[in-house]
Amino acid sequence: MSKVAVMGKEGFWSRNRKSNGYLLKKTARSFFLKIARALLLFGMCFLILQPIFNKISLSFMAEEDLYNAMVIAIPEHFTTDNYLMANRFMDYTHTLFNTLAVSLSIAVLQIGVCTIVGYGFARFEFPFKKFWFACVMLLIVIPPQTISTSLHLNFRFFDIFGIFKLLTGNSLNLRNSMLPYYLMSAGCMGLKNGLYIYMIRQFFRNIPKEMEEAAYVDGCGTLRTFFQIMLPDAKPILTSCFLFSFVWQWTDGFYSKMFLGNITLLSVQLQQISEKLNYYLEHTLHQAGGASTGYIQCIVSTGTLMVIVPLLILYLFAQKGFVESLSSTGIKM
Amino acid sequence: MKKKKKYTGLQRRKAIAGYLFILPFVIGFLVFMIQPLFQSLYMSFSKVELGAGSVKMIFDGLSNYIRAFTVDTEFNRLLTEEIGRMSYNALAIMVFSFFVALILNQKFKGRAFVRAIFFLPVILSSGVILGVETNNSLLSDVSSLIKESTGNTSISGVIETILETSGVGGMAFEIVFEIVNGIYDVALASGIQIIIFLSGLQTISTSMYEAAEIDGCTKWESLWKITFPMISPLLIVNWIYTIVDFCMRSDNEVIEKISETMIVDLNYGFASSMAWIYFVIVIAIIGISSLIISKGVYYYE
């Protein structure tokens, strides 16, 4: 910096001559690198955003536009019928509130429990700690599909040590209620919960021990230390995990399909939208052959857009919570 | 409770408090993971019959496994295909996310905006949306239409034909082409990995780079001598995450087959035997590969 300040009075070319052409080479190189980087980044950003743009333009097209080779991005017959259609098939407002309630409650429950567990792993010494933590790692690695078969049966014929069978003569069928998934969430077995425990533990481990000791010396109990000293510090990582949990629950198809059968959720509705469209066209409008591929895709795109728009709005406002706080955590092995 | 000599007084109290804190996990793990895990293992060795109010499991030996490997026409093919796809896609994702993290760690105008876009896939490519995305046949129809009308002038297509006609092509090139054509999938799958690499890059102190620069180190050298060793512990984290993420994606064909067998055919025994084969293979891959990577990891304290 100081070099530039001293030589700043001279012209660029005289400085270049003094350095035997090094300055010119360096400036040119950094300039080209900048251009290359900008092009590369623009290309990759376009790559990621293009499907969204594509969906937006598709969603406003009338059916004849889809097969018109001249129409690529801007619809010729601008229409909002697709939204009305998708709304009808997904029962949008009702489903939206359902999804919102489920995602929100599950995310709160999961992150609450994961915080407690993560704190336990980070700040306490107890026998078999390594073993239990290995179990957390195992939890991250085991695909839930491995146990889905037996979970399926377990909740179909749910019973705690045969108590219900003794009382009512029959086991409970919890397959079509929310209870199993809430129970699983309370036991840290929900979607990607191992990952949340891992991240939260990583954060709590980095808090200096002196903080805790000072609290103990001042007469703070274990619980009070946790709630009043540690939790306020952990806000960024908790928001981060909460947002992830919320978003992943929102789009999750596996657990939703398995446990939340009778509650209409956006993710499940979205998967069924093309079938519903076909059914509607065949049986209500009596169109032979159902919907054309293009039209199905058009409605599916519209539906997808309607599912992700709330998430995009959330991301717009909470982008910092998603990214910055997570990258400042310092995840380590 | 077994009382150890090591844990007395305050230590013992803290140990108990620690167990109370992780209690939800312990209970959940035992009830919703270990128990179903063993049950599904047992199921995979038996014939499951669904009755009106109960399940009957008849021990059937290895027949489900034999069926998966020898009788079933799809399973072997799907398994090898998925694992092949996983291995080169995971490599591509690692390289891509490292590269992007390096760029995003530099200072330039609009960095926050670009970062925001790169993490968008974390939201957009999760769960069912990915599955809906992949069978979006209209998009492929449109692109093939464009290809036809422009006379096959996509850059990768031209290079592909040049290399094929000149005779240097082969398996290796095919994989490269597949990755290049699937760069969209790679970009979509690498959101979290970029965040993890970025977090590692931000912990490297700038004084290291300054010292290296004063000693005459070029940027390229400091990339390999400082940056790479410093974030090498994150390589394992990312590698495992990538593989696990790939295995659990809803558009994974093996997973699709398993859930179809379970939900549509109601053949629980066969489904769980396939799930177990898949699970064991994935665990083996993760274990072996992270053992190899961990040999080269450098821990800086």
Provide structural commentary.
- The complex is a heterodimer of chains A (333) and B (301).
- Chain A is mainly alpha-helical.
- Chain A folds into two domains: 2-49; 81-327, MetI-like (MetI-like fold, Orthogonal Bundle).
- Chain A is built from 17 helices and no strands.
- In chain A, helix 3 crosses helix 17 and helix 6 (92-123) runs parallel beside helix 10.
- Chain B is mainly α.
- Chain B has a two-stranded antiparallel sheet with strand order 1-2.
- In chain B, helix 2 (63-71) crosses helix 15 (268-295), helix 4 packs across helix 10 and helix 13 (232-248) packs antiparallel against helix 15.
- Chain B starts with 8 loop residues before the first helix and ends in a 6-residue tail after the last helix.
- Chains A and B meet through helix 3, helix 6, helix 7, helix 8 and helix 10 of A and helix 1, helix 4, helix 5, helix 6 and helix 9 of B.
Instruction: Name the shape of chain B in a single word.
Output: globular
Helix content of chain A: over 70%
- Note the gap between the termini of chain A: 38 Å
The parts of chain B where pLDDT drops under 50 for at least 5 residues are: none
The total strand number of chain B stands at: 2
Strand count, sense and barrel status of the largest sheet of chain B are: 2 strands, antiparallel
Order of helices and strands of chain A: HHHHHHHHHHHHHHHHH
Q: Round the Cα radius of gyration of chain A to an integer and report it.
A: 28 Å
